[in-house]
Amino acid sequence: xxxxxIISFIIVPVLKCCGTKTSTYTTQYDEVDIKEIMxxxxxxxxxxxxxxxxxxxxxxxKELKRNIPDALQSDCNKxxxxxxxNADAWIEFMIDNRPEDWTKLEERYNPDGSYRTKYLESKHNxxxxxxxxx
Length: 134
Hints:
Layout: H1 34-39, H2 41-51, H3 59-73, H4 81-97, H5 99-109, H6 114-132
Helix pairs in contact: 4-5
């Protein structure tokens, strides 16, 4: 399930590869508070702009942008549990709260829309399971 990483897009703890022989991304940034970024318009816009090449990137943003294609292609199989959790939170936030920005990011990083589809299916299934348990 990809929703695990896209920009998460974004701001998921920056996923920095530690050489080509490594099988995981660095966990150096796993303690990044994704909620703080999502709640801070200035930070959020800066990261989105970085990922879209509209403004300069921080070193962390550069690493994130560099690793997004690999994470998407591999279904985040090099991600730590925390990175997956943050990616899920980020994707849900972007799709539900910033659909125009999500669409721009999706056009660049996931033009076939497969990750949005997975998220919406997952969300639908979660809602159906809640409804059935009542």
